[in-house]
């Protein structure tokens, strides 16, 4: 009975299995999965609950304690601590502002103005014909700026960028209203509800734009067929 050589056996493996590209992690996976999204919301939730129960100082301590505890838990479980470090830093800065101003609502101040900055940046990028959704996606995937040579591709990314601008703009408008009316509890709820869930929807639009742009670029010969 003739046995197959190693090369013959390897050649029997379907080509798509040998050359299957490694899939890029989704936005949810990059955030640490569902667990990571929950972790990111816990310090704000702890702040709001503690502020209602024990006042501003208790709230600051609670938010910092939760952020540090999440970091320690990730270390113990040998998970990536990078998101936790960023979380602790963000909470520490927000807590420092609250401690300095003496106003609990200022815990959310950085996020509010960051949302406004994001909305302006995304909108401005469309106006100058460099939609950020296309720039960031194609830099991340190594395709450079070839997509800008096609008007339809730019239109796809214009739509995705405007959706992102709308998400950040909505965050600013809603949270700024609650900030001006001193509704700390509503601020916390808005921060959580309008955080990753809204961003995930916007990223689906970015993925739609990228997929349609890639198909278009292949059709007109600007992108080799081997690219995804």
Automatic annotation (TrEMBL):
Residues 1-27 are annotated as: Disordered. The chain crosses the membrane at residues 56-76, 83-101, 107-128, 155-174, 186-210. InterPro entries: UCP010219. Residues 1-13 have a biased composition (Basic and acidic residues). The keyword Metal-binding does not apply. This is DUF3159 domain-containing protein. The keyword Transmembrane applies. Signal peptide: none annotated. Keywords: Membrane, Transmembrane, Transmembrane helix.
């Amino acid at each position: 009975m003739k046995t197959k050589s190693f090369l013959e056996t390897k050649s029997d493996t379907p080509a798509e299995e040998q050359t299957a590209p490694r899939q890029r992690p989704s936005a949810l996976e990059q955030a640490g999965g569902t667990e990571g999204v929950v972790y990111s919301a816990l310090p704000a939730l702890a702040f709001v609950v503690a502020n209602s129960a024990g006042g501003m100082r208790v709230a600051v301590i609670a938010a910092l304690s939760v952020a540090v505890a999440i970091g320690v838990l990730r270390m113990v479980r040998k998970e990536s601590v990078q998101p936790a470090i960023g979380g602790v830093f963000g909470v520490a800065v927000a807590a420092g502002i609250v401690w300095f101003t003496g106003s609990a609502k200022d815990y959310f101040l950085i996020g509010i103005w960051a949302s406004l900055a994001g909305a302006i940046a995304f909108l401005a990028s469309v106006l100058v014909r460099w939609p950020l959704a296309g720039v960031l996606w194609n830099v991340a995937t190594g395709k450079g700026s070839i997509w800008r040579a096609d008007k339809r591709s730019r239109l796809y990314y214009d739509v995705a960028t405007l959706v992102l601008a709308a998400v950040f703009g909505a965050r600013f408008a809603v949270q700024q209203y609650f900030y001006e009316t001193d509704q700390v509890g509503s601020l916390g709820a808005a921060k959580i509800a309008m955080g990753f869930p809204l961003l995930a929807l916007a990223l689906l639009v970015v993925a739609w734009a990228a997929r349609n742009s890639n198909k278009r670029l292949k059709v007109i010969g600007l992108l080799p067929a081997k690219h995804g």
